[in-house]
Specification:
The chain has helices at about 1-45, 45-60, 65-75, 80-95, 100-115, 120-130, 135-185. By secondary structure, it is mainly alpha-helical. Helix 1 runs antiparallel to helix 2, helix 3 (about 65-75) packs antiparallel against helix 4 and helix 5 (about 100-115) packs antiparallel against helix 6. The protein is elongated.
Amino acid sequence: MYNIQMTFSRVFLVGLFFFYPFIQTVSGQADRRSVRQGNRLYQEQQFGDAEIKYRESLQENPGNIEGMFNLGNSLYRQERYKEASQKFEALTRISQDDQKRAYAYHNWGNSLLKSQDFAGSVSAFKNALRINPMDDQTRFNLAYALQKLQEQQNQSGQGNREQNEQNRNEQDSDQNRNEQHQQNQSQQPQPR
């Protein structure tokens, strides 16, 4: 009986060893299948349904770079820029492929740009160009983000100047009222 149990254990372990790659392949096929289905839905501009398929692929394989990248794209197309931004940022940290990291930085920059985070988008585009300095589209987006950042800073500066001017006018008005009140007090007869 002891020999049968040992033999069974060896056969089971050997069988597990041989079938383990098959189990991994089936699991890998499931997440790739979900990505392919998501891609079809994305092409049909069914971004919400595509998002669901990409999320399924990530449940099956959390390290699926393509699934995460495409999920970010589908969120972006649904105008959910903050969520898309989070996916692209995560990709910049986990992707080992420079080209994919450059794309992730580029898309992260676009998401931040749409969220009106111009300083963040400038930084993301610069990081994309550090990896792929020949990317004209990223260079164009960087120039646009820099322009928007400058406009934002000018508006902020002008807004501050206008606020300062308004504060000075209010202080002058308050001072005039105080002076007028003091004059009225001095012109009134004082009780004896």
